[in-house]
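Weekly sync notes, structure subgroup
Attendees: PM, AL, DS (notes)

Item 1: joint prediction request from the bench team. They want all two components modeled as one assembly rather than separately. Inputs as received:
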Amino acid sequence: MTPILILLALTQKSSSPKVFELIEPSETVVIQAYVKAPELTARDRAAWFVLGRSLLKGTWDFTAQKLRDYGSQAGTKPEVVVMPDFMRIQVVVPNDALSLGGDLVLSLLNRPSLTDEDVTAAIDEAKDDRRPPWIEAIDPYNKDFDKLSVNDVRILWTRAFQPSNLSFVVGGRIKQGEGTAEIAKRMAQWKPQRVVRARADIPPRPLVATGSSVSIHYLSGAPFSFSTPNTAARLLAVFALGVGKDATLWREVRERLALSYLQFVLLWPTVEGWVPTFVVARSAEGGEKEGSVSTTIRDALITDIDHWNEESLLRAQAMAEAAFVRNLSSSPIWLDSDGPMTGSLVDRCAWRGYLELVGSGTLDEKTLLSAMTNVDVEQLKVAAKSLLDECRVGWIPGTPTR
Amino acid sequence: MAGLAASPSLDQKAVLDNGAIVYTANVPTTNVFYLQLFLAIPRNLEGADLRHFMEHLIAKGQNKDLDAKLEARGITLTAETLHDGVRFGMEGPSEAVSAAVSALSELLVAPRLVSEEIEKEAKIMAQEEIVRPWSARLIAKLWESAFGTDGRDPFGSLESVRSQDLQALQATFESLMSNCTVSVSVVGDISERPVFEMVSNVVGARAKPADIDAPRVPLEVSIEQSVPDAKGRARGVACESLGKKNTLASLAAAFGLAAEVPGASIAYTPGPRGGVVAIIHPNRSGLDRVDTLIDAYSDQIATNGQATLLDWIDGLEKSPRERARTYSQTLPGESFFRIEDVRLRASRMESADIVSALDEFRAGKCYSAAGGGK
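Output from the run, pasted for the record:
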């Protein structure tokens, strides 16, 4: 009998979501839940976005107002961040309200109302919500909200919001094990949802126009995480190529070629790892020649690498340190689509949560910076060229103004 | 100590003999410094609409290698043009603060112009124009409504750039730079006294400019202005500088309203000689409920708005970056401006003051701009 009981215990334990604790002195406690998206069709992509918007409109336990009131006591409203392949649901509560935070998060995950009215409102809001074209272009797939039904959103919830897709981070002034215990207690009450099969649909369709007078040219690389070999050199190459006004991207694309005012590099977080993405926004010109600008950009970046020297290396290392230690405003380390990571408790929890999502485990910034100081010029050049060679080069045209 | 009108004590501003303002404050354990340089350039000076273009060129440094020198030390340089002048920001590791102070001398002189560079930079500015956020376009329109030519868009005019020859442009830049008042704030993990002296030596050597600027006078409210290449809607009111009671009341009102309208946010564009407080929304219909909210909940909105305002002011004090920015954008006449005094004034405001300010955000009473898009 005993071996069977042990097997059952292991099975139960392995279906419990992982909980990671970040214990540090703070007046608040941050609770973040991560939900991995299942494979998404074209319709699902829109539904995923709407689902994120719908959650905060109310659950079976808390109205939207109550979610806002209870969840804002620490000065930060509850938030749902929707990325193309994962979602982050977050509540920040005062120190002594961990239990309330647990209630709120688990209610959002397991018992959202998703009423007809709420989801319809979320669809309407999503249609109006237009981020700048240089952000939309980073995830260059269409989201067709017009073809979406309320049921599509509910069905996606049943598929995605399963314990096996979840992980958690609890950060702040908590005792060791307290966050884990709180989540485990709630998960024991989890009401499983029957997974409903979605309607047949086509794969996601690429974005074919920005819908503005801005064209976006991009280079999108291969995803990597901190468990990928050669991470330090690769990461340093991102800084050398694209971070700062003495980086290749600025010097070549803006200063020498005068192609753009706005150009930047970011590490776009996906469940496969960070995708190094170079973005250049410029006025739409129309015509066949415009498409070749992306290639011109890539060629300019590659050519510049041959001129790198010890100064280029030292500058990249200095910029990397600025990003990890001093919250550099042009840091390429993004945890979502809102911009670079900062030093806040919320972002440090999100860093932890994201690393676990991609299977990197814990990573100390000091270790990473130290590894980057051990990269030499030749290694940097090789990593940069390799990174660019792997890039998919593309553009999303805007509409020229007359 | 050359050019010092009054000996400063720690965490205070000093006004030098030539009108330059220097502020330093030590915030230990951050291991970072934030330096803000503000060049207050009178808006009625000839060529003032070229400030933005000038900012692009100054930021490169005298030998076009300023960013390379700074970034090698882990220092980043940002630049922006505001309604009352040009602001440069540097931040970096504490041990590199002297490199940042040395760089000030490159930012205090007119750039040396080369014609190929002018055309190239004009192209880049044209690209900048197309990526301007919709909110910035709406706010620029509110400023024009509120202050007319005194509220001209600091983005400036590319036609002005292209219409001048090299010599005339150089002369204009020399004039703008010699007629500006300089203000420098350095906040962070620094040794205050040596940093103060270094900064004073750099900025104290300049000749004193004539003070030819004056406070802005708001115009009568006009009909809503349309902004074709923007979206959403903005409602704004004119205000004075940050420390004034009417500005604080308007801010509290705007904070309170923005909290009640999902999707709304506040935009505060200060100017030492007058600014604008606005609520903005990405949808044209997003602010339609404002008047109804004021009718029904003015007391509650005022209370909540005041609490948010106090939190915001606390943020200015606590964040070394924001503190440096706030202190850099004051005038010689406000040398005793202190954020904690502003907070005290804000906390002592009566609800009636904020309710009265709320009233000014009603349709037809405030300046309004709407995007031509959806």
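Discussion: The two ends of chain A are 80 Å apart (CA to CA).
Action: AL to compare against the crosslinking data before next sync.
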